[in-house]
Amino acid sequence: MKITNSDILHLGQNKNPPTFQIDPFFLPHFPSMPGLQSIRKRATLRVVSISAILFFVCLAFLHIVFSGTGSSLFYNRNNTYHYEQPALRHPNPNLKAAFVTFTKADTESLFKLRSTIRDLEDRFNHAHQYPYVIFSNEGLSAEFKELVSSSTRHNVLFEHLNATYYGYPDTIDMARANKARQQMKDIIFGDSDDYRFQARFMAGLIFRHPAMADLDYYWRFEIGTKYLTPITSDPFQYMHENEKKLSFIFALYEYHETIPTLYSAVQRYMNDYPGHTIHQTEQDTLWPFMIDPNTESYNNCHFWSNFQIADLSFFKGPAYQAFFDHIDRTGGIFYERWGDPVIHTMAAAVLLRKSQIHYWETIGYQVADQFVHCPVEKSLYKSGICRPIANFDHQGYSCLPKFLE
Ligand SMILES: *[C@@H]1O[C@H](CO)[C@@H](O)[C@H](O)[C@H]1NC(C)=O
Ligand SMILES: *[C@@H]1O[C@H](CO)[C@@H](O)[C@H](O)[C@H]1NC(C)=O
């Protein structure tokens, strides 16, 4: 008897409609004929080798075609990435603001910079078009510049820092600075020149740089940091309308070994300029956040500055610049390891009212793995990627509770 496809399909239930189907493709598997296995193996081998040959022929063809145009399938063959520095363009002439950061030239920095720019664009800037200003002491390749500036549709400017902005000032005793670095090699960045050059630039010199001249506000960001939730209103606008000068997300303790004489240097400044500085006995000051009531000394609390939105009239103004010059002249950046976050925070205590400082509860933000801030507002964390319970703000190392007191 000859078995047909339809017999198989209706196997054992000729009278009823079929409840299952066997794909006719499987039919040849039913009879097991001797020799069939090896025939099948040889056929498979032939198909695989012919496909492989065809694949490589196609690849070679495409390669030849594309290499003529300068961009091969695999890499940019003519190796001419292209970037031309645009002029700084302000989407809102009444609010001249930009994202500002510092980078090194290596590929890891390139990756981190691009991913943070993507976050900023996706979470906020796609709707606002603020430009970016990117400083580096290293020569950035055309590839670096083109890849970074193509991460956003908005203006990206690169600014090279020479030794005036990034290096030792003439006044530093190099032997003393070298000795300090050796003695501090067990503290994070303790033996680093680069940390100190960046700290000095970010603490004060940046505000004298020509690239900052045309800006009223900046949003300082750090490469590799993450923005976790949508930013639904314009923080620059908020700062402007509410007359805020400085803002932060994380507040935490500095290692005391890095700043043993910072507070006494600040006290000297206050004694020298009593009429121009804000004292602990006054109202609406940052001092209760920073002074330990028992020891009456600095409790090492400060605002982290890897995220910082600021009104640049504060940092560029004569009061802050004089304060920075005083700090810079002491040499504490090099003889100890004063960072820009503690310098900025000390200046805020000496020169600003607490009501001029804003804490951004509403911005989801992450530094490295362990420093997470997630807003409590459900609509924000719902459309973001963070868990409020992971908040660093609740941990013992955070100073935020002191600021909110
Ligand atoms: C390389 O590519 C750039 C743009 O992609 C083009 O302007 C330039 O003329 C090309 N150079 C050569 C030598 O083909
Ligand atoms: C660095 O550049 C500035 C201008 O941007 C200039 O005034 C200064 O002399 C330069 N410093 C060095 C060491 O070249």
UniProtKB/TrEMBL annotation:
One of its GO terms (cellular component) is membrane. The keyword tRNA-binding does not apply. GO terms for biological process: cell wall mannoprotein biosynthetic process; protein N-linked glycosylation. The keyword Hydrolase does not apply. SUPFAM superfamilies: Nucleotide-diphospho-sugar transferases. It comes from the Eukaryota. The chain crosses the membrane at residues 43-66. GO terms for molecular function: alpha-1,2-mannosyltransferase activity. PANTHER family: ALPHA-1,2 MANNOSYLTRANSFERASE KTR1. This is Uncharacterized protein. It comes from Absidia glauca. The lineage of its organism: Eukaryota, Fungi, Fungi incertae sedis, Mucoromycota, Mucoromycotina. The gene is ABSGL_06017.1 scaffold 7611.
